[in-house]
Specification:
The chain has about 200 residues and is of the alpha/beta class. It has one domain: Rossmann fold. About 20% of the residues lie in helices and about 25% in strands. The chain is built from three helices and nine strands, in the order H-E-E-E-E-H-E-E-E-H-E-E. The chain has a seven-stranded mixed β-sheet with strand order 3-2-1-4-5-9-8, with helices on both faces. Strand 8 and strand 9 form a beta hairpin. The protein is globular.
Length: about 200
């Protein structure tokens, strides 16, 4: 069985799906503002998507990141991003971070706040789903998930939670399960006008 290791086989497959979804949207990100919440700046960064060429790229992380000429690094906590104004980014994404965030709902609210109306939010998390094609019959009522892999690893999310909690009030929501055990990618667009 493949285990989750940052930069391992699973992350490579997930990055490919993430980039493929960006490509399918056919949005010209040139000159637009993009931020990766909890991301890294190395060669494995999702900010290195070919679709984001020409975008103004930022990365927020709790820890200092090495200087990088391609990205602007912001040191801070995703639970409270006071240093970023409302409606700043055209694309906000977060991958493999919320499961380590004790107060993930605060981070999700902050991501929505800094996203421009009409902007795209993409969130990748380890999840659990029912296996529709179990390898053995007795596993048909079992759900699969990632093992705990870090000291602070609090949550796993269902596709329903991603759609109804993370993307509540958003438009064109899509939730897909990638890999086995699942990594779930949710995406949606912030409405142009707030719903009352």
């Amino acid at each position: 069985m493949t285990v989750e290791v940052r930069g391992g086989k699973m992350d490579k497959k997930f990055r490919a799906v993430f980039w493929e979804k960006l490509e399918e949207l056919k949005i010209d990100w040139n000159g637009k503002s993009v931020i990766d919440i909890g991301g890294i700046g190395g060669p494995l960064s999702l900010l290195r998507s070919p679709e984001l060429k020409g975008a103004n790229l930022s990365c927020l992380n709790l820890s200092e990141q090495p200087r990088n000429r391609d990205f602007t690094f912001i040191k801070g906590n995703a639970n409270e991003m006071k240093m970023i104004l409302d409606d700043t980014y055209d694309l906000v994404f977060c991958n493999a971070m919320l499961e380590h965030d004790k107060f993930f709902w605060k981070s999700v609210a902050e991501m929505k706040r800094i996203l421009k109306p009409g902007g795209l939010l993409m969130i990748g998390v380890p999840g659990y789903t029912k296996d529709e094609n179990p390898p053995l019959n007795f596993l048909q009522n079992v759900t699969f998930t990632f093992r705990f892999h870090m000291k602070k690893d609090y949550y796993r999310f269902s596709p329903q939670a991603i759609e109804e909690v993370f993307f509540e009030g958003f438009n064109q929501i899509e939730v897909i399960s990638v890999l086995r055990p699942p990594r779930i990618l949710g995406m949606g667009f912030k409405p142009l006008e707030e719903k009352n």
